[in-house]
Design goal:
78% of the residues lie in helices and 0% in strands. The chain has 13 helices and no strands. By secondary structure, the chain is mainly α. The chain has helices at 2-23, 30-40, 47-65, 67-83, 89-111, 113-119, 123-139, 154-166, 174-184, 189-210, 212-216, 225-252, 256-276. The protein has one domain. α1 (2-23) runs antiparallel to α2. It is globular, with a radius of gyration of 19 Å. It is an enzyme of class 3 (hydrolase).
Length: 277
């Protein structure tokens, strides 16, 4: 009996890790899908430690996939600081822009933390947010843009940063909001995608570091080391493949797929709520 309960717990952690991993990189809101999974599949919320672990797993996948760009931009920025040569200026400016774009979400997250927490459990809010995401993706689905990293402006970066702030609302996809904003101001698909996921790095690291004290004080961390590990690996692998697929879909200009998916899930949840009310 005890082994069956333990197996069920492991399966739950596996499913939650997969859901986080699959939905984090793509523009459909990972946090929203975890809430929906908990409601419709009966999966329990595993708390802050779990959220941080699976989030870090997704972060590692992002860093691994973009490692070459990451090293190039870091190297270029350091060379600019050392030499002030103009050919490295765009790499240095890219990092400055990332910091600036992070500020709105960081401030709003600190000020609205309690309100976001109270709203994030309502599946009706998630459904409406998914519909908004679907509309936004549909509007920019055919945009290509011409601006590369060396051509983006401070004003455009602030707009993308404000979009990331909006994504703090439950059910609004972070990657979806930032990519929609970036493509809306004329960035190429590749630039929008790269900036969006580089922007994810400081946000994810910052939120994780701030919560480390709570993780280490979690009395269940030793007891649940194995199921936590299952969720971490599941999220890591799923995030890697989901992001790889998303990159290919972005290159082919098929964002309509995610728009349709958001409409199906959003209207499906609203229909369900109408039936039970």
């Amino acid at each position: 009996m005890e082994s069956a309960i333990q197996l069920a717990e492991w399966i739950q952690f596996l499913l939650l890790g997969l859901i986080q991993g699959i939905t984090e990189p793509i523009p459909v809101s990972s946090s929203g899908h975890l809430v929906l999974a908990q409601h419709f599949l009966g999966l329990e919320s595993e708390g802050l430690t779990f959220e941080i672990l699976v989030n870090f797993a997704s972060l590692f996948a992002v860093i691994f996939i973009y490692r070459n760009d990451l090293f190039r931009l870091i190297g270029g920025a350091l060379k600019y600081l050392q030499t002030r040569k103009p050919e490295y200026e765009s790499d240095f400016r890219f990092w400055v822009y990332l910091v600036i774009a992070t500020v709105p979400a960081a401030i709003a997250g600190l000020l609205l933390e309690d309100w976001i927490a109270t709203q994030s459990s309502h599946i009706g809010v998630i459904a409406v947010a998914l519909l908004v995401t679907g509309v936004a993706l549909f509007i920019i689905r055919k945009l290509k843009g011409k601006k590369t990293e060396s051509q983006i402006t401070m004003k455009e970066v602030i707009i993308v940063g404000l979009a990331q702030m909006v994504a703090l609302l439950p059910g609004i996809s972070r990657s979806g909001a930032t990519i929609v904003a970036a493509m809306g101001v004329g960035w190429t698909r590749e630039t929008a995608l790269r900036f969006s996921f580089f922007l994810y790095i400081p946000v994810s690291l910052g939120s994780g570091i701030l919560a480390l004290r709570d993780v280490f004080s979690d009395p269940a961390i030793a007891e649940k080391a194995f199921p936590y590990s299952i969720a971490f690996v599941a999220s890591l692998v799923a995030s890697y493949f989901a992001l790889k697929i998303f990159i290919n879909i972005m290159k082919s200009g098929k964002l309509i797929y995610f728009s349709i998916y958001c409409f199906i899930v959003g209207f499906g949840v609203l229909a369900y709520l109408a039936m039970i009310s």
